[in-house]
Amino acid sequence: MHAIATEIICASLVRSLGVHPAAAESALLATLEHFHAQSRNPVVVRAGLTPDEYMETAMQTPRFLATLSSCALMADGREADARLSWEAYVQREIALARRAHQAVPPTALLGDLDAMRRVGHRLILSDEQTDQLIPGIVLALAIGYPYRSRQIRHLSLTDTLAQVTAEDLTEFLRDADASAGGHSLRGHRPDAPPHTARTH
Fold first, then answer.
1. Residues 33, 89: contact at Cβ < 8 Å?
2. Can you tell me the mean pLDDT for 71-83?
């Protein structure tokens, strides 16, 4: 990142959050490292994005700003404010994912409760387990939405969710159930921002 851009971002954090300049710099470095590590994820590679393309897209998302803000507050020693800032972002993402999911037409898999449960049955999941896992899956898809391949980047989040196939959902449910250790993902949320050390 260019030095001028770095200065502008840090100055904006200092002005909007009231954090120490050193905390802003530390947070920006930690956030950039966090997203750069994600840029080499196989999922990003499969989407046809280079690390630079991923970073360019990621830096324009609410998730980047939320991560940066939370890190800056944490680095400034304001842990409670950092948690509140991050949780506010998470709640906005959950609301966005819920609205998009509710708009999926009933002819699509993620718009048909019975069809989703049938996929769950094939994995020996009860209807209740499937119902509990679906919101977490939708949220995970919503979080990754800005980083989709160029071919579907023009689609809305609702249209993207409507394209999920039975094969896709089977994999999502299997992974979600394994991650939850066989328990509900009711508390699932976007990745927590990276922690940064206090700078003063």
1. no
2. 96
Question: CB of 126 within 8 A of CB of 173?
Answer: no
Return the sign of the alpha-carbon dihedral for residues 152, 104, 178, 180. Answer: positive
Q: In whole angstroms, what is the distance from residue 150 CA to residue 191 CA?
A: 24
- Choose among 2, 26, 11, 16: nearest CA to 200: 26
Question: Residue 79 — φ and ψ, nearest 5°?
Answer: -60, -40
What is the model's pTM? 0.79
Are 180 and 133 a contacting pair, CB within 8 Å?
yes
Q: How far apart are CA 197 and CA 74, in angstroms?
A: 8
pLDDT of residue 136: 93
- Write the CA distances from 75 to 10, 15, 35, 90, 199, integer angstroms: 13, 15, 18, 20, 6
The pLDDT tens digits of the residues spanning 169-181 come to 999 999 888 887 7
Query: Can you read off the two tokens belonging to residue 121?
Result: 């049955």
How far apart are alpha carbons 96 and 194 in whole angstroms?
23
